[in-house]
Model the fold of this input.
Amino acid sequence: MHWQSDLLRRLSAKYKTDILCNGDECTCFIEPVSTLEINEHTPKDEIKNFAFNKGTAAGFLSYDYGMFLHGMKSSKKSNFPFGVLKKYSSEITFSNNDITGDTDLLKNLPQVPQHRHISRNNKITSSADMAEYTAGCRRTLEEIKNGNTYQLNYTMSHSFKDPAFEPVNEFFRLSGDSPAAFTAYFDAGQHKILSSSPERFIKVKDGQILSQPIKGTLYTLTDEPEETAKLTENPKECAELAMIIDMIRNDISINSVFGSVQVSGFKSVFRVNSLLQMYGNVTGTLKKGSDVIDLLLDAFPGGSITGCPKKRSMEIIDTLEPFSRGLYCGSMIKISSEKDMDSSICIRTGIFDTGEKTFTFYSGSGIVSDSDPQSEYKETMNKAEKFMEVFE
Amino acid sequence: MKIIISDNNDSFTHNLAHLVFRVSGFEPEVIPWMKLGQSKLPEAGHLFISPGPGCPAEYPLYSFITSLHIPVTGICLGMQILNEIHGGQTMRAPEPVHGKTDTIIWQNNSYTVARYHSLYCGSVAECFDITAENTEGLPMIIRHKTKPFTGFQFHPESFLTEKGEEFIRYALAK
Done:
């Protein structure tokens, strides 16, 4: 990805800017002109009218909204909105060879802003210690034996208080020189979203659907074929990926032309920091009478962060985790037309709450029948590594 | 032909719908299991009972199927339901297997099939024949001796199952 960090920082210093990347390109959405806050009373048609009415819409849907779509209500309190979509006066897209859009705005930008405060040496509190997390894993294994779930994504929150936290500056510090494919910064009012997600949820281009679920993790610093094989030939890791692929096939099938859904690149491998991860491609064709909002809402939240079957797994998750997920495991979304959108899965994502002055980030792992609770705890902590390195 | 799929809140039901379409050319109607009673079931040419979480005891509404005269196919939990309403029993499998393949011999051919289950038909009702089992002896396909009822413990609709169409064709042919 062509990451023009300094230019983006200067742009953000002058204009209200939300940033959404998708691996190939980064789009800056500049100066919002209208906002739709989604709550439990927002009809689907209102979301469609807002999203499809001229200009690109950018925003997010929270995991809590996903619970609502499945007829559930979290037992925990949350002050995080179900979803926000915005329309903007301008946008600029940075791709490998090109800068397109309202590039006039790149003239006369201020210098790169200086940090007044760098958020470091924070005392980070996690929602579970090793004993609690492994106990949750063992309870999940019991649910698997009873057939209530085949796989379940069990997560932790980590948070610290820092009244001087500067969200935009910290976003660029977190992203560094080589940001994750689905990096995003989004201003949701009281909450500022700093996403460092490597995972796509669903992309639709001219009605062609692509989803790329990620599962299977190996902590290793080399890319030798033998190391890659440790991942692609590990039955547990492959089973996790297979299960999610079957689930995504199901979720996009609801709004796909009958018979159009295919799988390719099963067990493809890529690197995020010190982790190797696997993914696969699931494709389909949007059926007549369905648009990207129908597709997104019927498939939401992403199967890779719930577990399978989705509804029962989400019910169990709500009894396991002592916090409401809020945006975490929801999606950042960009909608350009009835047949065009892109979205991420909000993992490796942190939220700064400007009211509480706290920054919260999350990590988790997929529990399957042959999971070892100690290793799952280790994996979950490994996935928080980057945020820990930056803020602890 | 009208084909109904009863969905037990599963996350693979629409994969089954697409597979049934590919085999039959008919778009199945997917109905939540709680609403199955309100559907025009007797007019249907075939009923599929989807996989799903939990065990058959959680889905008591299905007991009426014993008096049904249309062909019925159950997948995973669906097969366990068919078996239980005819007097069979569901038990914990020796070990849960999810998202992994197994090899079964069926009609003298070898098939790679995807398994997702923690429970299995520990005791198969007398009215069913076991027409395929895996190497551990777990029933993988059951067929009613006199009625057009078929059960698959594995998932024909999974992308890991090779020739999933053949199993659906077999079920629809009865």
